[in-house]
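Example 3.2
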Amino acid sequence: MAEALRISTPLETSLMEKLGQLNSEALDYIGGDPILAAIKAYRDGMAAYNADPGQGEDAETVMRTYAIPHQVLEDWTLPAQTRQGALEALLLAVEEERECGASHLTLPLMSAALAYFEKDS
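Structure, written as tokens:
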């Protein structure tokens, strides 16, 4: 039991650090659009994951690369704040559907974009 705790603690710390970094990046977009920072973090994580085709899809690799940004987008509830943010959200939603089919990101991304466009109508 103690061994399992020692193994998971550094990973949890790393996850919290990454989440803090994502929150910090999103806050940098005040007056802009936080969804752009979240999408960029996800794309960066996916690029890091895909950079080494020899690695397996083990939990550690996924957590180290794209898992946290994916979770941030999966839990997204805010509307996009800018037209660019709405369009990027739609673009990523389409890409996810094409590549993965039935992606958990599609609904939150499309909802964020729709909320942006609905506010002007």
